Amino acid sequence: VTHVKNWIAGFAVLMLAGAAAADEAPDKIIICQGCHGDALVSQNQNIPTLSGQQPGYVQIQLYLFHEGGRKAEGMSEVAQGLSDDDMRALASYLGSLPKPQPPAEAGDPARMAAAKALADKEHCNSCHNPDYSGHDNIPRIADQREDYLTKTMRDYKSNQRPGYDATMAEVMQPISDQQIVELAYYLAHFR
Ligand code: HEC
Ligand code: HEC
To answer: Which residues line ligand 1 at a C-beta cut-off of 6 Å?
Structure first.
């Protein structure tokens, strides 16, 4: 019995060690910071914030960049140099960082209300969660950069960005370009 208890205690320590290691910054994070920001909150146009992003989603996207299914200058080359273990460690670490904060200035109430009505009608919140925090392979989109949100929704609609499956291309088909602009505004100011 003592023997079993020791084994269980040892296993618990191992698990704890594993959990702690997951939230330690992987060495390769320094490459990412050059474009995605020192705190992984992007200050650069059309480059997404990664802090607090869903680990399952990040891992799949890194894999897509690695395999060439999703393409972006710079990002594709970086992903090609990542191993499966790198992708797992980076995804887990990014998911452990704080979620992005809404901008200090609240969105224009009329624009926010109109875009919310559109997002509700299109059931964006059924997959992305009512607070747009995402889960598993579905990304957090609350308080992402507005320029990146606009660009990436346009890319889905034009099939520039194929995605892991066709879900977002289908979702975007009935959405006009003006509506994409308004949805990006709403999500980027979400609070
Ligand atoms: C040369 C600049 C550059 C570097 C370095 C870089 N990225 Fe990126 N990354 C981008 C750009 C640009 C995009 C957006 C691509 C697009 O528009 O589809 C992106 C997108 C991503 C996405 C998709 C996010 C989303 O919301 O869909 C992930 C995940 C990501 N990068 C992770 C990383 C990681 C991890 C590293 C470091 C190992 C890294 N990036 C290094 C430029 C870079
Ligand atoms: C049926 C589920 C579903 C619905 C409904 C849905 N999404 Fe998505 N969304 C996804 C999935 C899955 C992804 C990731 C796809 C991929 O691999 O690129 C995604 C990705 C996104 C992204 C990319 C975020 C990033 O970081 O690159 C944006 C922006 C987005 N969705 C906005 C919306 C908006 C706005 C609506 C409503 C008009 C919506 N979604 C409705 C499932 C959904």
So the answer is: 28, 31-32, 34-36, 46-48, 50, 58, 61-62, 72, 74-75, 78, 90, 139, 151-152, 161
